[in-house]
Batch of 2 targets.
Target 1
Amino acid sequence: MKLYNLVVIGEPEVGKTSLISSFISDYSIKCYKSELVSGLQTCIVKINTDIEIKVQIYDMTTNDRSILLTNQHLPSAHGIIIVYDITNDQTFNSCKNITKKLISCINSNRNMMIVGNKLDKNDVRKVERASAELFAQQNSCIFNESSAVTGEGVKEVFEEIVFSIYKDWDRIFDRPKTNYYFALALTVIICAVVIIWFV
Ligand SMILES: Nc1nc2c(ncn2[C@@H]2O[C@H](COP(=O)(O)OP(=O)(O)OP(=O)(O)O)[C@@H](O)[C@H]2O)c(=O)[nH]1
Ligand SMILES: [Mg+2]
């Protein structure tokens, strides 16, 4: 079974822990908390109804000032979810800074998603969906809005990033295997040409 590492990152109080808890309690087939690393949860997620994927989710509190501090979970992350609070535009500014810093300091092949949380407080929204969506699009990130309170959009957040990693896995993470098959095919063709030449 494949293991995907996800990091959920964002300003304090935007709802990262609530988002992860909401997803895990409603959706995953099986889940277990790490007793060794705090903030780390592992669960089994099903995509396409029949493919089971083990997902390790690391809940990382940060702000744009501390993002550059080396974190052991970021280099091994296959997907990064950057969360802001739709009722707090300062958290969206921080989300933009975090996204830019991540793009510049880690491998850009990583799947990234921007999530506007607290959608249930739409009546006091400060960050327009369209502007956040545009920023995400300009930075090649997936975009979603969610509410950890009502559960709206939560399943989609995790499903979409897991599916995106799944689609990209061979291209990004199994490249050596692809090269191996290419070398094998080339060797077979060369052998065939040599045999035909001598026969
Ligand atoms: N209305 C509303 N409140 C939410 C939502 N998600 C989280 N909250 C509330 O926001 C507060 C912070 O939620 P947390 O999940 O602890 O936020 P966090 O990002 O993990 O915060 P830190 O661990 O401090 O970084 C709590 O009071 C939650 O109940 C949401 O979708 N809607
Ligand atoms: Mg938290």
Target 2
Amino acid sequence: MACVLLFGRLLPFSHRLRGTSICLLSLFLSYLFYCALFPDGAIMQTSGDPTPSCQRADGAKRRLQKSLSCLLPSDARLSAVEASRLKADQRPHFAHHTAGNGTPSPPMSNLKFGNKKLPNAIIVGVKKGGTRAVLEFIRIHPDVRAAGTETHFFDRNYDRGLDWYRGLMPRTLESQITMEKTPSYFVTKETPHRIYTMSQDTKLIVVVRDPVTRAISDYTQTLSKTPDLPSFQDLAFRNQSLGIVDMSWNAIRIGLYALHLENWLRYFPLAQIHFVSGERLITDPAGEMARVQDFLGLKRIVTDKHFYFNRTKGFPCLKKPESSGSPRCLGKSKGRTHVQIDRDAIEQLRDFYRPYNVKFYEMVGHDFKWE
Ligand SMILES: *[C@@H]1O[C@H](CO)[C@@H](O)[C@H](O)[C@H]1NC(C)=O
Ligand SMILES: *[C@@H]1O[C@H](CO)[C@@H](O)[C@H](O)[C@H]1NC(C)=O
């Protein structure tokens, strides 16, 4: 029954696709795949989702993928990648994980149709600190599921409301933690209060890194997209010979961790905020991830056996990437030609940040040992 209806839905899409024979063949194969995946007709369960994802995405490149994802009502959808990932990946984890505490493994049907929940934990910052790496590392854990993209809900999209936000989250089982990461939250004034309004129990993770290297990394990234950018020095200083730093430049402002943190501590106790060292994430990823798992109340499942150190690259990589075939490493952009910043400018910036860093160490009770 479901398969017949599905086939009916398929036909209109075929008109839109170029290279029709190939597309029709792949659509037909996917139709067979979905029918095999959802033999009980669950695929046709009603959606009731107010934002049909079929109309959101565009771009001819993704048309085939889009039309396939539209086949499944968005509320009951599980991408083929996710489905196979759950089969190939989560299940053994569950078996492994539940062996300890004796609760039975949930049946596959639960995995298909969990609920979307607002996040329990959010990686709120900072840009160029290593937030993507922390998210990729923590989502190896079978009890964590995360939104794939940065939602920017609490800064840019707050007007869309919590239901919209929830809609971006992956389906989870009762026992699983929902997470997202948007690095700009940490430096956005309104965000702490807004997250507090959603839930005052939200756990917050901040990946921090030496503000000088962070600023240079930030600038390097912007430069790669905007080649005619003024020089780093021109942007960082209002008057370099006088050593006057331009604190309004975002690349500088983001590194004033103590100032931003004050804003968060008006709403959240320090114990509810976990700081990951961006530097130690590189030298000891398993150690940093152990602390993250402890903070989230998770069993330590992500350990050093998930990482290997690539000596050529000088960075740790994940042994078993979640969704791609190639290894996932920190320092992806290390191949980028780094901008040469003169020694004097770096020294001036170190002097500038030092008091803020010291204040930050005192606030969080940890010395990150930035120069
Ligand atoms: C920086 O300050 C010095 C000393 O006051 C002044 O001579 C110079 O013109 C200033 N440079 C700029 C770019 O404003
Ligand atoms: C290590 O990194 C280098 C340089 O990026 C890369 O060419 C190589 O394939 C990597 N080796 C492994 C085992 O990941």
